[in-house]
User: Fold uridine/cytidine kinase from Hebeloma cylindrosporum.
Amino acid sequence: MPNEFSKNIEFLTVNVPPQTNWQGELLPSLQPEKNTVLVSHGRPPWYAEDGQRISDAFVIAVAGGSASGKTHVARQIVRRLGSIPTVIILSQDSFYKYHDEEELKLAHANLLDFDHPAAIDMPMFASCLADLKACKQSNIPVYSFAKHQRLEETKYLYGATIIIAEGIMSLVDPALRALYDLKVFVQCDSDLMLARRIKRDVKERGRDVDGILDQYLRYVKPSYDNFVRPSASHADIIVPGSNNDVAIDLICTHIRQKLQERSSKFRQKIAVPNKYIPSPSGASTPEARIEDLDLTILPQTCQLQGIFTILRDKTTSRQNFIFFTDRLSTLLVEHALQHLPYLPKNVTTPVGVEAHGKKLDAQHVCGVAIIRSGGALERGFRRVINDVPVGSLLIQSDGKSGEALLLQVMLPFYVRLRHLAETAFVFLLDAQIGTAAAAFMAIRVLLDHGVQEDHIIFVTFLVAHQGGISVLRRAFPKVRIVCGGVDDRIQEGWLEGYKGEGNPEGKGRNVWVMKPGMGQIGDRYYL
Assistant:
């Protein structure tokens, strides 16, 4: 999975979570963090053909005493689940309240109670968890145990199918409990918890043993007796802090069953060419008229037809293909600029005459490429719109089901923060809209971040008339779609030379091919 992008991309690097494999193991050179994103085979569609969300993320609470093994249990669940969609482990420790100078003095003297429910910003915890459960992004706080303080930076999280919320107070607050689909309590011997706590605080948090013991007797043990242990009554299942293989297997079986119940055969619903915009009479028509699709199509000049002729020709050299692809993308982005807002502006010319013109009325403009074929439009985009951030979405088809899978999200700074995303205009770049499965997912991701539907401008080379475009337009009528041309149809076919599951001999894999089309645009541009 790509992890390097153009150095011109404007990202808030402190928000990027540590990268791990599906077993929860941190990749080399990265520092351990409790809040992690674990990716296996990507996130499948979480919406229906009308574009609306049909399933929330599955939220699991893992509560228990301090050093009882909550994080270990969370990671064991992830390991046992095996090949699963994206998982977020969200730690309650991030939500300690901000401390003033007086509280900081008490904290460094081990005289501040961090084990009371009042030490946790429960409303913020519930708000961030509710956003993630509703498939929205969240920017959660970062807390430094060494400084006993919440830092100014935040951590960006998005895209989970499963969320594991772990912390000693995870089951104490009613607002939090209302968000959970499964509640787990980790029960552990008190002596073992104390031994683990001493080892952890000395090694990871720079504390001395005397201070740890004093804090334990003064705050930790009373809190466990008064708040944490009683919260076990709210748990659906109680798991031992050690030797818990059977309990974890039961939990994983339950999770798999619930995820299976929420799965949706999305792509086959929109790829079949009988899903079209209803006619004015309300009945479905066998074919959607191009004018009903509300597309912005480039004027079909002789120049444009000549460019398409070169790009469609399979004998065109790679050098010429890249040159004319960049030229076509430049024309498309220039044409797409008409969908940005403008205001009148008067200027004085060099000869002293006042001229009436226009100026752009959009504070935040950025681009997002659906890689890898969408990257073929990036150079043209940068030629036309100078000095704006460009991010990417890695969306690929699952080898078995054919469903679109969201594998990686690298969005510009404007989109990561919701208060900025609400006013941002986003150019979504992809080579073509065939089944529209990738387009659906990309648009839904932007909407989840707070981007307004009428602020999304989808720029593409080709659209398949008899593909999923009609369903896409019905689901997102306010999205502006700018294309170079409209081809007649898509057809189920095979991508030659692909070796994978079900095709060990390299006979190909099942794909939808646009006719006449331009072939595999990403392969022709990059390979």
